């Protein structure tokens, strides 16, 4: 059976979550106390409910324990997001993921049992900083479930090293699919093949494993 998700709070973040989940064909229930918000997401979200998620009885009626992940995306009121997290965990919801406004908010959410706390501004700031520092990767395509397709350009440090030196052919969690050299695509790859400046390696697989490999260069 497909995973089922619920999103509580349909501000900018919550609606973006619903839209992307729906785009990826996941089943998503969108909940907001404000009817205008549920109407706004109704164009791309098939299941919407107007409800106050800080009310225990309402939460029990919604049957949220059947959902795989319930996301609380309420940034404007710390009190409400903390209370809803507590109610969801006490009701026995399997995984409660919550958007935090800052580190203090994140800490309280963890204390009341949030399974994952997301701090979008902080996370995005770090990611942007990483991409500002890293000009090696481009064309980064998310394939879902932590899988990515990406390209890596051979720079001065890797110039002249073989694929064997770079430990590229014995990776278990990602694969080197091909090497683009000028206008030629090489897909018969051996450990002895020497890299040349500007070669483009096409990699696919687990993002963390690729990041880890990049750190070793
Ligand atoms: P963002 O920062 O992502 O734009 P907001 O904090 O502005 O998010 O939006 C929070 C949303 O949560 C609003 O649409 C608001 O109506 C909704 N909301 C607030 N309290 C509750 C509640 N008790 N139950 C359900 N939805 C709520």
Automatic annotation (TrEMBL):
Top-level taxon of the source organism: Bacteria
Domain named RCK C-terminal: residues: 135-217
A Pfam family per the record: TrkA_N
InterPro entries: NAD(P)-bd_dom_sf, RCK_C, RCK_C_sf, RCK_N, Trk_Ktr_HKT_K-transport
PROSITE patterns on file: RCK_C, RCK_N
Residue ranges occupied by any RCK N-terminal domain in the UniProt entry: 2-118
Gene Ontology BP annotations: potassium ion transport
A GO MF label: monoatomic cation transmembrane transporter activity
Membrane spanning residue stretches: none
Protein name: TrkA family potassium uptake protein
